[in-house]
Amino acid sequence: xxxxxxxxxxxxxxxxxxxxxxxxxxxxxxxxxxxxxxxxxxxxxxxxxxxxxxxxxxxxxxxxxxxxxxxxxxxxxxxxxxxxxxxxxxxxxxxxxxxxxxxxxxxxxxxxxxxxxxxxxxxxxxxxxxxxxxxxxxxxxxxxxxxxxxxxxxxxxxxxxxxxxxxxxxxxxxxxxxxxxxxxxxxxxxxxxxxxxxxxxxxxxxxxxxxxxxxxxxxxxxxxxxxxxxxxxxxxxxxxxxxxxxxxxxxxxxxxxxxxxxxxxxxxxxxxxxxxxxxxxxxxxxxxxxxxxxxxxxxxxxxxxxxxxxxxxxxxxxxxxxxxxxxxxxxxxxxxxxxxxxxxxxxxxxxxxxxxxxxxxxxxxxxxxxxxxxxxxxxxxxxxxxxxxxxxxxxxxxxxxxxxxxxxxxxxxxxxxxxxxxxxxxxxxxxxxxxxxxxxxxxxxxxxxxxxxxxxxxxxxxxxxxxxxxxxxx
Length: 474
Prior knowledge:
The protein has helices spanning 3-12, 14-23, 33-41, 48-54, 58-67, 83-89, 100-104, 199-207, 442-445, 451-459; strands at 92-97, 127-134, 158-164, 171-174, 223-225, 231-233, 242-245, 249-252, 255-258, 264-267, 270-273, 278-281, 297-304, 309-315, 321-325, 331-335, 341-342, 355-357, 363-364, 377-379, 385-386, 399-401, 407-408, 421-423, 429-430. It has 474 residues and is α/β, with parallel strands linked by helices.
């Protein structure tokens, strides 16, 4: 292994070094060039090779790296048309928003739950905001797209084209679905040429919006390209145009913010301040009761291994709390014996939690672990009441033990399909859509109006494995 590959192995892992050896023998002829290309365009992390392979984009990655050294000087103007004229040829009407009122006027095109974060206000302070609307937009109905795809006709019928106001002019093309599909803020791979040829140059000439770091036709799922031209791996999902990344990095509206590891830990979408001994939210627009469950911290101890980081939190007049993070600083285990009531939106955006211990909790609020998809078993020995949308997104929970549970509100384990054991002998009241997607409860949910029959049917499956067929004569 030559010196360049040794650098790549150290920064990006052994598998990446092997792939680079196979792909870039020509580039490796020039000492120092390949590490420079990678370090200038990808933040260091050891999972990038695995991510490239899993997404089936090895050749795309190879072509992207070669494109970085394929420098062509061509000052010839290819098109003389304005962005409005080009987008009109592509079937769009283009508008630039000069005020907050003009931005809000486009909200009418977005379905409930799919509105852009842009509509929350303040975007014009950071970006130049354009909207491109298909001329036949009124004929393109959301109801006709039950399985949305990012580049489908509905998703691209209204797009927001936004450039940051800093010198990088970082581009984001935002989809009409917003978070219903993968990476909606990178529609058309954030490449104007994917809409119509010549549009990049046209925006440069008409508005002076020259992108310092163009996309070069490369997109890697789970990574965001910041305004320094680098791709950063991020955790969970984009939240309000903010990305939370490994290595104590937050990307806010494409601006890179780094936090000292001696003073802070970025865990999930929270900041643990090791000096002030507190946990806080970076984004004040987020509601999450998790920060309310850890107060009066006396001491924080950290134990690190290759794959995990264990955080032990000593509480004044309380028992120790334990948090375990994976290599990307995502929360995978949590134990907190000090709380009896959990408020709304507890770990709302967390996807990765695999083990949870809240032995003294008696009540949880709405949207409890709403986006979690990793828990397989839960035990709540004292839990009595559960709010709406409990573990709404989790499909794989297999066992839930809650012997004192009496009341659950609507959308309880809405998407779960694999629950095998539910131990809740005292359950007395359930809301609509109880285990709505579970194959054994589909019939039960059809007869919810008859509450007595509904609960009788449910009792057939509680406290035992769901193996008996449903008796429709009951």
